[in-house]
């Protein structure tokens, strides 16, 4: 067990100077929003950007030959460059790989894009392995189940030890010479633990497999550097960072994106079309059929700008303190069991827990009556919960805009839940 | 919404001291109901008398407090009802928790204690929990009316 938060650390999270940047939080001071792992709140900068796009540069990007359309096109290109820089996707000269950023609707679509295109690239077939972990969100699980069912490949699971870690032994045992695709979450949306993607990617490459990282729960909370991770692809959603709903990101190594077949087809993704065939546009347009949400991309750009103005290092540190404080407070109550590591500092964003003998849906409903927002259920990770022996759990998750009082209100609410179910109220 | 409007002492009494949470040994009809996404599982057992009326209803299973309290209140309400009356009450209950039926007097008169669950109509995510027992009973009795066996 690590040492509790110091007075200085508690001082950092005593208040949130950031809530005023978020109109919903500013208008609802009574709310303890602890469900950012599902979706973050939006800062005003994002809302203004969304509006600014429609008010000043609204046109269909890519095809227009007039100024507005050109501006819209430039806005998307600028957003790509910004996203690339944000996740460390730079070339050897340090230039951001904007063209290696594909915009999708969400992380799920980015992962589905890979599941639909990589099997052809790697000629996946019977006897091959697709390796994922038992802690995957359904969005990085069902697509691979479908791929394996269609191709005859085996779906292999990296499992956790008692300490909620995927060990090096497990990595070496499960990622073998038959592995063609390895797709793992960087941070678990249920347990909050971080996987050693660098070690997994190194093993995958050693065995000749491609490695995908699901960054949906890591990119919002930690400084992600795809070069340090060593993965071939990274998928995440803008809305979990505070960006608009409806923008997902897929980064891939340029040579792989070039070699992959397209995902969706139609307008905007072709260079030329004849009655019998078509020539694909270069990456990233090859993967972006149809009119894109340019306003969403523009607002994503603004979101990253806002986060950078605060500093991702500061955000990461503050969120670690908040998650640690959340764990410490939950551990004070003997009627609560944390589902995940007991070390508070291993939780990134999310902490799952059980209130003894009370169904998580009752917990969440009662907490809602005290204006505390938490998630309850299987968190779109049913195989993980089954593996751990739970049917459902409660989950509280923090973002930098939270403060100590949000966690304290959760604990007060949980005491009420316990009192209601044990006749002490 | 106030906590006491749903999770009050009367409600909690059904959760912690249920009157009808047992298996009927001489059931004439049994039926299972589940909410896969919640993990609620309910096994309903009912004994119809020679006059065709429900003599006794009971349940076993596990789930959230809303699903279990609702099953307990329903079991109490159904004693003495004909299958047609029971089905009508199940429909009325569903109308109440989906917010379609708002006549408070009527609800209280016909659903008795179960009318306290009316605030579930403000909690869309909990409608399935509240209706589990009622849906299960209605399914069982409607199958019976259609002349098929439902004993499992």
Please tell me about this protein's structure.
The complex is a heterodimer of chains A (about 425) and B (about 150). With about 425 residues, chain A is an alpha/beta fold. Chain A folds into 2 domains: about 150 residues, Aspartate Aminotransferase, domain 1; about 260 residues, Type I PLP-dependent aspartate aminotransferase-like (Major domain) (Aspartate Aminotransferase, domain 2). Chain A is built from 15 helices and 15 strands. In chain A, a hairpin with a 4-residue loop joins strand 9 and strand 10. The two termini of chain A are about 35 Å apart. With about 150 residues, chain B is of the alpha+beta class. Chain B has one domain: Alpha-Beta Complex (Sufe protein. Chain: A), CATH 3.90.1010. Chain B contains 5 helices and 3 strands; from the N terminus they run H-E-E-E-H-H-H-H. In chain B, strands 1-2-3 form a 3-stranded antiparallel sheet, covered by helices on one side. In chain B, helix 1 crosses helix 2, helix 2 runs parallel beside helix 5 and helix 3 packs antiparallel against helix 5. At the A-B interface, helix 13 and helix 15 of A face helix 1 of B.
What is the element layout, followed by pairings?
The complex is a heterodimer of chains A (425) and B (152).
Chain A (H helix, E strand, L loop, with lengths): L6 H7 L9 H5 L4 E2 L10 H13 L10 H20 L14 E4 L2 H16 L6 E5 L8 H10 L2 E5 L9 H7 L4 E7 L11 H10 L3 E5 L11 H4 L3 E5 L10 E5 L1 H6 L10 E4 L4 E3 L13 H17 L1 H20 L4 E4 L10 E6 L4 H10 L2 E2 L1 E3 L4 H7 L4 E5 L6 H18 L4
Parallel strand pairs in A: 1-13, 3-4, 3-5, 5-6, 6-7
Antiparallel strand pairs in A: 2-8, 7-8, 9-10, 11-12, 12-15, 14-15
Chain B lengths: L8 H8 L12 E7 L4 E9 L5 E9 L2 H14 L4 H15 L6 H8 L15 H19 L7
Antiparallel strand pairs in B: 1-2, 2-3
